[in-house]
UniProtKB/TrEMBL annotation:
This is A disintegrin and metalloproteinase with thrombospondin motifs 7-like. It comes from Pteropus vampyrus. Its main location: secreted. Transmembrane segments: none annotated. The gene is LOC105311108. SUPFAM superfamilies: TSP-1 type 1 repeat. It comes from the Eukaryota. GO terms for biological process: extracellular matrix organization; proteolysis. The keyword Repeat applies.
Length: 288
């Protein structure tokens, strides 16, 4: 600054005898005295700040800046401890976006169904946020879509196979197939297995008929009837275990023919005599 000022002063000075302007060399002492570096500190200098800038980011965590200067133009004139911060953090809404998961399996393999997926508002680290954080962005992706629109075919079933057990509960199987894989509705798939022969492994066992209680005129014959386990051969205490079979009779009538009537033999009276004049006569009784 002093050199400029000095140059301007030399230009304004009168000309010398030769007609040329006097050439003056700047005084080193004057130049040092005018240097801002050596000026005494201003006692009334204060810090001045400008307006904050906009946040460095549009979402999440960013920073803002502002100019900070000393009113005297020299940083050393203002107290360092009172210097305002030229920058600070700015917290904006989270950097949110819509995140869609994988589509689920179609609710129906044919005949028209739907598939769904999870759609959430998340931040940069995929942490869930409330939906309103994503409202300023694009429209959320669909969470449901149609699927399985092709017509359904009918299931084919074979006849049932023989039961795996004769009693006590077994299984029967049959073949169930779709004419075209994926074109039969799974919800209507017939069973390929069912229980069979669920009755207990028991049956009625009968003994021989006993003697008739009467030879004629109506009698009764009886026999022993018991419920027996067919696996062990032992009788069951509860006859209800054989309720799946008809109960055989344990008695029947016998000797139903009429009894013949027979008279007991009659005794003939002893011969006696009758007559006159004391002549005995023997009389033979007939039908004796």
């Amino acid at each position: 600054l002093s050199s400029v000022l000095l140059s301007a002063t030399a230009g304004d000075s009168p000309a010398n005898s030769s007609g040329a302007p006097d050439t003056q060399i700047p005084d080193p002492g004057l130049a040092e005295e005018g240097s801002p570096k050596d000026l005494p500190p201003a006692s009334n200098a204060t810090w001045e700040v400008g307006r904050w800038s906009e946040c460095s980011t549009t979402c999440g965590l960013g920073a803002v800046w502002r100019p900070v200067r000393c009113s005297s133009g020299r940083e050393d004139d203002c107290a360092p401890a009172g210097r305002p911060q030229p920058a600070r953090r700015c917290h904006l809404r989270p950097c949110a976006t819509w995140h869609a998961g994988n589509w689920s399996k179609c609710s129906r393999s044919c005949g028209g169904g739907s598939s769904v997926r999870d759609v959430q508002c998340v931040d940069r680290d995929l942490r869930p946020l409330r939906p309103f954080h994503c409202q300023a962005g694009p429209t959320p992706p669909p969470a449901r879509q149609p699927c399985g629109a092709q017509p359904c075919l009918s299931w084919y079933t074979s006849s049932w196979r023989e039961c795996s057990e004769a009693c006590g509960g077994g299984q029967q199987q049959r073949l169930v197939t779709c004419p075209e894989p994926g074109l039969c509705e799974e919800a209507l798939r017939p069973n390929s297995m069912r229980p069979c022969n669920t009755q207990p492994c028991t049956q009625w066992a009968v003994g021989p008929w006993g003697q008739c209680s009467a030879p004629c005129g109506g009698g009764v014959q009886r026999r022993l009837v018991r419920c027996v386990n067919t696996h062990t051969g032992l009788p069951e205490e509860d006859g209800e275990q054989c309720s799946h079979e008809a109960w055989p009779e344990n008695s029947r009538p016998c000797g139903t023919q009429d009894c013949e009537l027979t008279e007991p033999p009659r005794k003939c009276p002893a011969p006696h005599s009758t007559g006159e004049m004391g002549d005995p006569q023997t009389v033979a009784l007939q039908h004796c």
